[in-house]
Amino acid sequence: MKFSAILYQIVFLFLVAVRTDAQILNPKKILERKANKAIEKKTEQAIDSIFTKKEKPAENKTEETDSKPEEQPAKEASVPVKDSTPSLQTYSKFDFIPGEKIIFYDDFSQDNIGDFPALWNTNGSAEVVTTNLFPGQWLQLSGDKTVWTDALLNLPENYTIEMDVIPTKGDDGRMAGYGIRLMQAANPKAWDAGSVPGKAGFYFAVEYFGRPGYRTYINSEEGRLLGLSGFRDEKQYFQQEGRKYHISIWVQKSRIRLYVNESKLVDLPKAFPLTENKMDRIRFEDGYAMYSNIRIAAGAPDMRNKLMTDGKIVSYGIYFDVNKDVVKPESYGSLKEIASILKENESVKITIVGHTDADGADAANLDLSKRRALAVKNELAKSFGIDPSRMNTDGKGETQPVAPNDKPVNKALNRRVEFIKQ
What we know:
Elements: H1 3-23, H2 30-50, H3 58-65, H4 71-77, E1 101-106, E2 120-122, E3 127-129, E4 138-141, E5 146-149, E6 158-167, E7 178-184, E8 200-206, E9 212-218, E10 228-231, E11 245-252, E12 255-260, E13 263-268, E14 281-285, E15 289-298, H5 303-310, E16 312-315, H6 332-344, E17 350-355, H7 362-384, E18 391-397, H8 408-414, E19 416-421
Parallel strand pairs: 17-18
Antiparallel strand pairs: 1-15, 2-5, 3-4, 4-15, 5-14, 6-11, 6-15, 7-8, 7-14, 8-9, 9-10, 11-12, 12-13, 16-19, 17-19
Helix pairs in contact: 1-2
């Protein structure tokens, strides 16, 4: 028998004796038990230094990898990761199309760094910040505070909500999770306390170890048994600290669908079956995260009718980063719908026209709008097989605004892509 094997058996018997003795200790000898554990740990480390990886017994390998189920995702999430924009093709199953009429928009560009944003209210504190990983300004929320839209939202039966979220570290140095609530307020002038606040609500939360979950509730006698809840336990849906996630919510009467990036995580046909429950407020709460590019829009555009009958589609569902001409992958749903119209009507030709807001120099905006229109054409050709000869491009920069360039919601209206039938 090899010397190393004999030595291992001797040490193993010693460890068993130490563990057996520790099991019969009474509570008064806790300090002694801790000392034994320290000796055991040092002994195991000594064994590690003697044996090679090939000679290590399987038992030691098991001890090294054992951990509680919830600890591993949190450990992985503790390292911030720079944004890596996926290709448009990864969104091939993404059927979300944003609403046509913008009701509410805030990217916090009108607020000073370090201030609390003008369109919101809180029961604690939060501030507008910037980050070196992602462009733009962000609302940073920390701890058990709540931030909500100050004025109630007048939402129709069908609407969409979009936002970008970055989970951040909590007080213990790892991701703390966050919560987003769409609700019907009971108190329009202040916040509604409790775990099921307001008259009704839909709550989406990401736990500290990254698992997403949801809950619906109705605070009435008729609706008290109609609540729904669940989690998405698939690891590919777990979120990580330092990454940016695009959240899309699609409400059609009683139905709610929620997407994170390209994946549909929630689809509840009867989330709110009672007609008296009409949501009117968004809240961010219960965690550490940064939020931006919050967009609420009404209705689903009838693109087919608008192009074939009216001769023009005005799209707010094609996205670019600030001062960039690369089509973002969450534009897939809108581009797919436009491509399907062109495929069904093979004789139709279009001109794609880009428009910007008035931020920046006139000449730069004109050039940017032209490059964005060309980028849309290239994606329709490359990703959807539309013949490039059927598509011309143009850019108007900031010269044809549809709203004053005075606040975020109006600037968002001016940033658009038009498809004009030739």
